[in-house]
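debug: dumping io for the single-chain case to check the tokenizer round-trip. Nothing else runs in this session.
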Amino acid sequence: MLLRRSSEEGWNGMAGQRDRAGLLELLEENVSFLKASAASFDAGCEAEAKRLAVTLRVLVHDTANSHSLLRQLGVKGQMTFTDTASRIDPNNLIPAAPGLVIMRMTMGVGASYVAPLDMIPLPPSRIHPPAPFDAWWNDAHTRDSDGALWCRRKFVLTMANKEGGAHVDPKLNAAYERLAKHNGLGFTSNAAGGAYLPFDGNVAAVSVRQITHEFLKSYEAHAHLFV
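debug: decoded output
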């Protein structure tokens, strides 16, 4: 039987709200996207952070015209989120605060910003109780060497909406360019001959990888909500 187009319903017989089973299927699909992109990132494809950012946006970010999967499932307010970010210390004389990334030095290779993931043990400064969504998403935890502040929302939406995840903004984002491409945290390591070399790694991308890790840990901890 042919379906007829209806201006009020779309395709006859197919209009209406999504049911919970359909939403749960989409949730599982997006979680699988996160895991696949995270594995690719860990294998050396830093650009996967943009796909991670887009998927995180689908899962958690709400606006007047955009409805996250967690909100549509009615679970977003019931969840708390794993928080591994170091805090910004206003009394620290070092201007930058690394937030979600750690600094790793490898003999003969150099130094880079990496995601701690499930590093054991995490430094005490990174061990916190799970946070409600609004605090987890919006509280600043990273400060670059010029004083710009970053939160999880800013990292995710910048990469998803401006830097090629789902859209390329025609204007460069100066703070992102500095953080991602010009060692915006400003940390250096000693090299042979007494020279100082900047740390490698896109802090924004590495931060999004750690945000993904936090989300997946939170998802697993609340498995009872997704039945």
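debug: round-trip ok. Helices lie at 20-42, 48-60, 69-72, 133-138, 152-161, 174-181, 203-221.
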